[in-house]
Protein 1
Amino acid sequence: MLNNKTKYSQFIKTEAKRLGFLSCGISKAEFLEEEAPRLEKWLKNNMNGEMRYMENHFDKRLDPTKLVEGSKSVVSLLLNYYPKDIQTENSYKLSKYAFGTDYHFVIKDKLKDLLHFIQDEIGEVDGRAFVDSAPVLDKAWAAKSGLGWVGKHSNLLTQKVGSFYFIAELIIDLDLEYDARVTDHCGTCTACIDACPTEAITAPYVVDGSKCISYFTIELKENIPSEFQGKFDDWMFGCDVCQDVCPWNRFSKPHNEPLFNPHPELLSMTKKDWEDITAETFQKVFKKSAVKRTKFAGLNRNINFLKDTNL
C-alpha cells in the first residue's frame, strides 16, 4: 500500500500534467548549500549589472523556509513555450518566450488551480505560488527536483525537451516524496559559449548578466553601451542564441497552450515595420505580453540601437 507521501506526490504530479505542465518534480524545502557561495561570488563580481534587486533578500533566495513559514516541500514545474511558427526572416528578433500572453498570468492561474486541488484533495495545506516574481532560484530548485540539469549557458536542460520552458514553484508545508537529481549531459560541448554574440558566458556554467543581450534589451534602463554596437545579432527583446544552438533543443516540441500563441501580426512584421511601429501598434500587438515590461520607449531604444548598427 502507498504511504501518504507517495500518494500525495503522485496526486500532485498527475494534476500538474492535467493542467498542462510539461513536468513536475519535488524537493525538500531547505537551505541551498551549494548555491550560496556561487551566488555570493556572482554578486561580488557585479555580474548582476544594474539588477540591484538580485542583491536583496540573499537569505530568502537560498532558504524557502524564510519565504514560506513552515514549508517542507518545493514543487517545481515546467511549462513549454516553444512556438510552432517563428518570425519572418527579415525582422528584428524577439525572444520566443515573449510571443504570446505574459507567462506570469498564465502560470499563476495554473499554480493557483494546483494549490486549490492540493487543498481540496489533501486538506489544510498552506503555501505560495512563485513565477519568477520573488527571490526564488528557480533553476536550482528545478535541478534539485530532478527536472533537468543546469547547462553551461546556465539554463535548465532536459534530454527529452531541451530548454524552451518556464519554471515555476509551489512552496508548501506538506511532507512529500522527494525526487533525485539527474546527471549533467553537456559533456565537452561548448556550442552556447562559442555562439554568444556578446561573450556573456564567461566560463562554463557562468553567465555575466551585465553582458547578456537579454539584460541590455529588457533590464537596462539607460542607453545601451556603444561598445556593444554590432554585437546584438538583430535581437530587440531578449535573446535565444545560447538555446537555439544547444543540441538538446533538437528535441523541442511546439507547446499546446493557446495563450502563448502570438498576435497574428507579430510573426510577419519586417525590420521596416518595427522601425515604423507606433504606440497604438505596440499596444495592440503586445496587449498582454511580457514585452510591455520594456515599454514602447524601451523597445524603440532597442530598435534604434539595431538600426544604427545596420546603417
Note: The longest strand covers residues 73-80.
Protein 2
Amino acid sequence: MQPLLPSLALALCSLALALAGPLPAQAADEHAGHHPRAQPPEAAQVQFADVELTDQHGRPVRLKDEVVGDRIVVMGFIYTSCTTVCPVVSAIMQKVQAQLGDMVGNEVQLVSISVDPLRDTPQRLREYASQFQAGPGWTWLTGPVPAVNDTLKGLGTWSADFTSHPPVIMVGDGRSAQWTRFYGFTDPAVLVGRVYALGAARQHTPPGHDGPGHAAQAAQQEERP
C-alpha cells in the first residue's frame, strides 16, 4: 500500500487534532502500539550515539555534530511504508515548517528519522519527503540498522517492533540540552510554541551558561588534571 497523499494526511491531522479520538480499526491493526491521542509532554534526557547515519541525499552525517549542532530542533520518527499514523506525524512536521518559515534551516532544524532503516533507503526517504514539501533545513535520516537502533535508544524512542513505535515528536535545544517529548498528535502550534520558548530562554541565558549540557561539560573539565 502506498503512503497517504499529503492532502489526505493533512486532513487526517486536522481531524485528529480536533477530535483527538481513536483511529479506525484498520489503523489499530497496523499500529497496535500507537496511541494517537495527545498526552502530556515530558522532559527528556537524551544521549546522541556516536554513529554515522545517512541523510536523504545519501550523505553520511553524525546527528549530534552535523545535524543538531547548537540549533533548536524538532524531531519526528516515521517509516515510509506506514499508511496511518506516520503520514500524520509528517503532516504535523510540515505545518511546523510552514509556521516557522525562514527560521527553518537557520536557527531551527527539522529532523525525521526512519525507524525502518532496512527498507527506507535515502532515495525512498527523498521521495517520501517530497510529498510533504520538505525544504532546506528538514533532514531525513536512515542508516545501518545497528546505528539507527543505537540512535533511537539514545533518544528514548526505540521499539523492538518498529510498526508499534509510539507517535512522538521531540523538541530540544542542541545548545542547552533541554529536550521535551510530545506524544500523540500534538497541535503544531504547541510545538512551535516550544521552539519559541527555547529561543527566548537563550536570550536570558548568560554566554557560557547554556543549561545542563554546559554544566556537564564544565564538570568534566574540572575533573581533568
Note: The radius of gyration is 17 Å.
Protein 3
Amino acid sequence: MLLGPAVLGLAWPKAQSVLLPTDVLGPLRDLGHAGLVLFLVGVAHELRLDASRLRDRAVAWTALGTFVPSLLVGAALGGWLVWLDRPSLRGTAPTGAFVLLVALALAVSAVPVLARVLADRGLTATRAGRLSLTSAALVDAVAWLLLAVVIAIATPGSKGAWTAATVLAVGALAAALGRRLLRTPPAERLCARWPWPVAVVLGLWVLLAADAAESLGLTAIFGAFVVGLMIPPESPHWDAPVRRVSTLGLWLVPVFFIATGLRIWTASGGIPWLVAILATALAVLAKVGGGYAVSRLGGEGHAAALRVAVLLNTRGLTEIVLLQAGYSAGVLTSGLYLALLVTAVVTTSMTGPLLSLIDRRHGTEATSAPRENEPIALG
C-alpha cells in the first residue's frame, strides 16, 4: 500500500500509468477481491465457535470486557467526527453506518495474527493464550455480522437494517444446516478420498456465496464468512481443503493491497495525523484497559491479565479488511481510512514488544494444557 503509489510515485510520477495502465486495474482489483474472500474462509473456519468453548464463563466476560468498552469509545470517536463535520473525514454516509463502522474498527481483534503470535511464543496452551484467542474469535464473529449491517444500511437502494436482518438470519440458518450436512459420514468420506477436487468445489462455492452476498446489498466478506462457518471445525478431513483454499487466497491478498493502495493514495490528500493519533490512543486505552480490568475481576493475576489485554489489542488484517469494506461501500473517506489504518498497524506492531516487556518483568507463563472439558472459571 505504501511502496507503489507513495514511495515509487515520488521517484517516478508516471510509474502507475506505465506499470499498471487503466485496463489492467479492473482485473487486478477483481483478482485481489477474490483472493481476499478465499483467504477469509480459513479465517472464519479458525474461529471455531463450538459450544464447548462458549460454555466457559470467563470467555464471555473477557469478550465483553474487551469488546464493549472499545465499541463505546469508537462510537464516541465516530460521533465526534460527525460533529466535526469535515468532508475529508466525515463523507456522506448515513450517520448510523458511519458511527458503527468506526466503533467496529476500534473493537475488533485479529484472530489469524493472534494465533500466530501465540504459536511463535509458545503461549497457545497457556491460560492467557486460550482465553484471549477464544474471546477474540467471539468478538470477531460479532464484528463480521455487524459489518454486514453497516454495508446494508449504507448501500443505496437497499432496505437497510431490514435487509441486513433477513440476510443475517438466512446466513445463520445456512451455516447451521451446512455444518450438519458436511459432518455426515458420506461427506466426510468424500472429503477424505478426494481432498483436491473438494478444495476446488469449495473455492467456487466461496466465490459464488461472496457474489450472492454483494448482490443482496451486503459485503462479499459475509458470504465467505458464512461458508467458513459451515465447515465442521472438529473434522480433520475438512482441514486440508480449507487450508488449500485459504492458502491460495493468502497468495493473492498482496494483490488486494496493491489495488487498495493505488485507489487510496490517489484519492487521499494525506494522513490526518491528529485523528490517527487520537484513534490509536483510544483504541489502546479501551482494549487494554477493558481486557485487563475484566481479567483481574475474574481472578487472574496481574501478569496474566496484562498478557490477555495486550494480546486482544492485536487488530491486524481483520481491521484492515473491515476498513476496506467500509471504504468500498462509501462509508469511510480515504483520509479516515488511512488514519484508522495507522491504528491497525500500530496496535498490531506493539503486541510483540509489550509481551516481551511483560516477560522480562514478570517471567514467562508456564504452559499448562487443560484437561478435557475443563472450564475456565471466572472468579
Note: The first helix runs from residue 3 to 11.
Protein 4
Amino acid sequence: MEILEDKMIKDIISASLQKSMSYKAYRDLVEELTANNSTTGAEKTEALVNYTMLNDRRMKRWDKTVKVSDDAKAKTQNFNGNVTWLVITESWCGDAAHIMPVINKVAELSDNIDYKIVLRDDNEELMNAFLTNGGKAIPKLIMINNETGEVENTFGPRPSVATNMVNDYKAKHGSLTPEFKEDLQRWYNKDKGQSTIEDLVGLL
C-alpha cells in the first residue's frame, strides 16, 4: 500500500513539474496580471486582484533587499545534494509574497537546487497530497531528490517562528483577526526574510 502511495505521489509530482515555471517566469506572470487587473487562481474577485497588485510590490521590494548571511551562504554553497524545490502558490497569497523572493535568494546560491513554481488551483492533486493540518495552505515547498524522485522534506506555509505566532493566537482567540494579520505583515517586514532563510538552510 505504501509503495503504491509513494508511486502515486511521484507521478503527481512529475505531472506538476511538467507544468512548472521558473521564479523569473512567475515574477513576469504576476507583473502581467497586475498590469491587466487580474490574478491567478480559480476566483478572480476584486479583493484577490488587489492582493496580487500589493504582492507584486512586496516581491519587487524583497527581490532587491533580502540579504543572506555569510553563514547561511556558506552552508547553502556547501550543499552537495541534487534537489528541486517545488513551491505551490497563488499570486494573491500574502505569506507567499514575503517568502517566494527569499526562497529564490537561497536557491540562487547553489547549482544543486532547482527552484520551480506551480499554481495551487491548477494542481489540485499535488495540493491535496501536501495539505497542512487538512488545509490547502500556501506557499508550500516540496523538496524532491532529483535522483530518486523521493520527497525529502517540506516547508511552509510560513517560517516556523510565524507558524508559532499563528498557532498561539488561534489557541487563544479561535481564529485570526484582521488586526493579527496586520501584525503578521509587520513581523515579516521586520524579520526581513531571516527566519525563512534559517528554515530553508535547515532543510539542506
Note: The two ends are 29 Å apart (CA to CA).
